[in-house]
Every structure is written in C-alpha cells, then in structure tokens.
C-alpha cells in the first residue's frame, strides 16, 4: 500500500523532540532522542521490548515527565504548561492503548458516548448519536453498537478503541502496539484502518510497534529506538538497508527467523 499522503505539510511540525532523556533509577531508557513529526505524517517507531518505545509516547502525551530535553506538541512544551493547558492539549491527542482499555461494564455505545459527553457538554442527543454512529461506521463496526466488549473479538476491541479516540477528532494519534496479539488477517485490517484514519481525519501519528509488516504498511517514515536513541528516520527500505547489527538482527528476526 502506498502511504505517501498528499496532505503532509512539510512546513508544519506537530511534534518536535530535542535531546530527550529519561531514566528510571540507574537505567537509562531514553538517552538523547531527537525527532520531528510533520502534519499529516505517520511515523513508525520500532524497537525491541523494553527499549523505551512506550515511555516515549507517554512523555509526548504528558503522562510521564522527561528528565531533560525539549518536547513540543502542537506548539506547546508539554512538561512546562499548566495542568489545565495539558488537559486541553490531551483532547487533541488520541491514544490507542495496546489492550484497547474499554470499559467492560459499558456497551460499545456507552464506551464511545462517555468521552464525548464528558468533553463536549453542549451536544444534543441527536448530535451524540450521530457522532457515535459515524465513527463506528468509519471503523466498520456499526453493527456492534449495542454489544458489550466481552462479546467482541480482539481485533474488534482494538477498532472500537480507535473509534472511541476518533470521536473527539484528535489532531495526533498515538498507537501503542496496534497489531499485538492479532492474527495475520486482522493485522492487515488494523493496518488498513490506521492508513484510513490518517487520510480521512488528516491525523499525524506515531505508531509504536515491533511488527515490521505494520511499519512498512502504515508509515511514511520509519525509525528505530536503539540504546536510548532514535536512528535517522527514513523510508522502510532506507532504514533497513543499514548494515547496523541492531537493525539487521531486528529485521532478520521478523522476516527470516520468525517465518
């Protein structure tokens, strides 16, 4: 699939990170991360488990504070703005959790309605219903509107999680291991949905993954977190043309040793 988006504005940065560092005790997780993400761009961040990928997006969304460095999101320095400003900024950031994070006690309708009415209190019942049906239609699951999360497959739960995020029409999407635990066919469906979200909602996205097929399918650029630093982002083929042993080992595990 061609993921080159005609809507990318190379003059507008939505995320800018300079010399980001984060440690937990003596363990250095991020050790000088630098990256810029353009409006309308999907970028995949690859890396082994425990390499710090999830820490990176938690810092971007203000869930963790960096030890040092600059993290600017939609023009705001995340670790220095007020609590109120951070809350407003988070409404523009959609977070797709690895485990979907749905409320098991609520129906699909309830899961989507909850964040909408909490943050858009002036909507009428008709507007709420229309918004719920619209995003469910966009993720191809309108028929599940009255089902409970326990009645859904793993892939359906992830799609509903994405729909719940999209209902607030975010400018940025953060995907944490979107294809983890899914069968190959469902992975393809999720990858196609990520590209559809980028094109239809004009989102800028970071996709945290160790799935190279996902990265190759959804990303305009790819990078890899190695020893606390990000490799220079490029196309999938550019990144994996590297002779770096860390890169080659990661590629071989995914496409050779794991087949």
Helices and strands in order:
Layout: E1 9-24, E2 27-39, E3 42-46, H1 53-60, E4 68-73, E5 76-77, H2 83-90, E6 93-96, H3 108-119, H4 125-138, H5 154-166, E7 172-176, H6 184-201, E8 204-209, H7 212-218, E9 221-226, E10 229-230, H8 236-239, H9 245-257
Parallel strand pairs: 3-8, 3-9, 6-7, 7-8
Antiparallel strand pairs: 1-2, 1-4, 4-5, 9-10
* Model regions low in confidence, pLDDT < 50 over at least 5 residues: 1-10
The total domain count is 2
The assigned CATH architecture of the largest domain is 3-Layer(aba) Sandwich
Oligomer: single chain
SSE string: EEEHEEHEHHHEHEHEEHH
- Alpha plus pi helix count: 9
Structure summary, number of beta strands:
10
Strand order of the largest sheet: 6-7-8-3-9-10
Mean pLDDT: 90
CATH level-3 fold name of the largest domain: Rossmann fold
Strand content: 25-35%
Rg value = 18 Å
CATH class of the largest domain: Alpha Beta
Largest sheet: 6 strands, mixed
Q: Report the span from N to C terminus.
A: 22 Å
What sort of overall outline do the alpha carbons produce when their principal axes are compared?
globular
Class per helix and strand makeup? alpha/beta
Question: Mind telling me the CATH superfamily name of the largest domain?
Answer: P-loop containing nucleotide triphosphate hydrolases
Helix fraction? 25-40%
